[in-house]
Amino acid sequence: MCGIAGLQVRDPSLEPRLGELLTGMLHQAAERGPDSAGVALYGDARLTPPGHSAVSLLAPGDASAAEIAALVGGDTAAVTVSQSVVVHSPSLPVADLERALRGAFPTAVVTGRGTDLAVLKGVGHPDVLAEEFGLRAATGRQGIAHTRMATESAVTPEGAHPFSVDENVCLVHNGSFANHATVRRELRAEGIAFDSENDSEVGARFVAAQLAAGHDLEKALRLLCERFDGFYTLLVTTGDTFAVVRDAIACKPAVVAETDAWVAMASEYRYFAHLPGIESARIFEPEPEEVYTWQR
C-alpha cells in the first residue's frame, strides 16, 4: 500500500501556493506509506532557478553542497535538502551537468534531471520529510508526491519515489508489477542500467525507453499496459503533462478532481478537501487501462 498525490496548477495566481497545497495532500497520504516519501517539483525557483539546468541526487557521503559545486566547477551551484542535493547551472546543458556530476561522484545516485525539475526523497515519516524539504514554502506549476509502504524491495532512499530516469519525466506508483524481473532483464539486455531493485523503477525505465523510441507519453503508457502484469495506479509527469493510468482490474484506488484552476490526482478523495474550489470540482474515478492526460 502506498499513497499518491499530484497537483497541476492552471491558474498562475496559485503557483505561490503549490507547496502549501501539496503538503496538505502529502499529509493525508502519510498513513498509506510511513516508510519513505518523495516529491517532484516543477518550477520551484528556490531549487531550480528559471533557465537553469538541474540534476537531483541522493547526498553523496559527507560532501557539502559547496564542495559538490566546487568539484563540478564552472558556474554550478548546489543546495542540500534533507537527504538530497539539487545541483544547477545556467550554462551547462542537462546532459553535460549530469555527466560532470557522475565524473566527480561516480557512485552517486541521480534521482532527477531537467530544466526546472527538483526531486527530493528519503527514508522517514512523510510529515517529517515534508518539513525537512521545506515543502510548504515551495512554489511552481506542478508537483507530485508519494508515500511508500515497501513490499517489493528494501526501505532505502534509492527505493523511494518519485522515479525520474529521463529528462523532466517523473513516475510514482501504487501497486506491484508481477513481471518486473522479466522486463528488467529485457531492459538490461538493451544496455539500460538500474539504481535500485524496486519494481517501480522498472516501469519508469520502460516509459523512458518508449519516449526515447519516439512515442509520446500517452502511447508509452498504453505500451506499459500491454507489457506489464500486476496491479498499479501510475501518475506520470513531464514538464507540461500530467498523466494517470490504472491496470485492467483497477483495484488500486485513484480519484481525479479538476477545476478551471487546477487538476489533481490522489489515492483517496480526502486528499483534496483543502484545495480551493473543491466544492465545485469535477470528480471521477479513472477507468481501467484508460490513459488520462492534461497539459498546460
Give a structural overview:
This protein is α+β, with helices and mostly antiparallel strands and 296 residues long. The protein is 25% helix and 31% strand. It has helices at residues 18-29, 65-72, 94-104, 126-133, 180-189, 199-212, 217-227, and strands at 3-9, 36-42, 53-58, 77-81, 84-89, 110-114, 117-123, 142-148, 163-166, 169-177, 230-237, 241-246, 255-258, 262-266, 282-284, 292-295. The strands form three sheets. It has a seven-stranded antiparallel sheet with strand order 7-2-8-1-14-13-15, covered by helices on one side. Strands 9-10-11-12-16 form a five-stranded antiparallel sheet, with helices on one face. A four-stranded antiparallel sheet has the order 4-5-3-6, with helices on one face. The longest helix has 14 residues, at 199-212. The radius of gyration is 18 Å and the shape is globular. 48% of the residues are buried.
Summarize this structure briefly.
With 296 residues, the chain is an alpha+beta fold. It has helices at 18-29, 65-72, 94-104, 126-133, 180-189, 199-212, 217-227, and strands at 3-9, 36-42, 53-58, 77-81, 84-89, 110-114, 117-123, 142-148, 163-166, 169-177, 230-237, 241-246, 255-258, 262-266, 282-284, 292-295. The strands form three sheets. A seven-stranded antiparallel sheet has the order 7-2-8-1-14-13-15, with helices on one face.
